[in-house]
Amino acid sequence: MAQSFEKYQRRKLISSYFSVVLSIGLVLFLLGILALLVLNTKKLADRSKEQITISIFLKNDAKDTEVDQLKKTLAMADYTKSALYVSKEDAAAAHKEDIGEDFVDYLGYNPLKNSIDVNLKADFVTADKVAEIADELGQRSFVDEVSYDKVLVGMVAKSVERIGFWILVASGIFTVIAVLLINSSIRLSIYSKRFIIKTMQMVGATKQFIRRPFIWQNIKLGMLGALLALLAIVGVIYYINLNFQDLGLLEDPYILVVLLVSVFVSGIVISLVSTYFATQRFLNLRTDELYY
């Protein structure tokens, strides 16, 4: 009979530990995926911004030395992501391919101009900064026109800001929910041992002495849950990178390492803090309150 009861208690304890590890693992996994989404949303937003092109159309009488000097200036500018010189012949060939008709033969001459297409770095793609850069480039005497899509620049900048704001709000809310869920799981596991806690306290054990084994036990469970979450996150990253290589998840391994370490450390810290306050609550209860 005693042996059967002992087995029952052991199974109950293992089940309790398993539920804590599983809940911590699931919550940290979702938290890690959300963080991955936040990081890659910015990356995708930056890529969208860097697709916006400023076209600098050059006058027909522009000297080669002037054009070369402009190329060098653009190459050294802080705002330049890339700069590509497009001759009017290349522009005509591209236009012919797009419309399927050779307009040069029809007109008898090439009305297009030599140009330089400049893609800006993401941080410089705002309505004010792009307008400032365009005005600066247009002041050169050999530049005929500077053209870019003003509507698209304004729309992209506003959309990115709006999306970024709501993702940060969702991240904050989900982080709070994650902490509450892990805290709830740990509190339930400690609740089943409230009588042991009170018994130890009644025989003279200090709060620190009582608290220590619970904290250490739940830190280990938090580490197991974090490892479970890390395995799942790595699996998701591998799958996404395999099927959606354009996202470039593995382009910056440093960020991924920081993310994975942060998830692991979060599991330890949340478990430690939750266990501390859960044990503190039961240590402060009166004996008659343990039954409620």
Protein topology:
Blueprint: H1 2-50, E1 53-58, H2 64-76, E2 80-86, H3 88-99, H4 103-107, E3 115-120, H5 127-138, E4 143-147, H6 150-191, H7 194-202, H8 207-243, H9 253-283
Antiparallel strand pairs: 1-3, 1-4, 2-3
Helix pairs in contact: 1-6, 1-8, 1-9, 6-9, 8-9
Explain how this protein is built.
This protein has 292 residues and is α+β, with helices and mostly antiparallel strands. It has two domains: 150 residues, no CATH class; 96 residues, Alpha-Beta Plaits (2-Layer Sandwich), CATH 3.30.70. It contains nine helices and four strands, in the order H-E-H-E-H-H-E-H-E-H-H-H-H. It has a four-stranded antiparallel beta sheet with strand order 2-3-1-4. The longest helix is centred in the N-terminal third of the chain and has 49 residues. It is elongated and about 100 Å long. The model has no long low-confidence stretch (mean pLDDT 77).
Low-confidence stretches: none
- Which strand order spans the largest sheet, edge to edge or round the barrel? 2-3-1-4
| Integer-rounded radius of gyration | 31 Å
**Terminus-to-terminus distance:** 29 Å
Summed up, the domain count is 2
- Mean pLDDT, to the nearest integer, reads 77
**What overall geometry do the principal axes of the alpha carbons give?**
elongated
SSE order, as H and E? HEHEHHEHEHHHH
Proportion in helices:
over 70%
Strand % is 5-15%
What kind of assembly state do the chains in view correspond to? single chain
Enumerate how many helices there are, as a single number: 9
Give the biggest sheet.
4 strands, antiparallel
Helix and strand content put the structural class at alpha+beta
Number of strands: 4
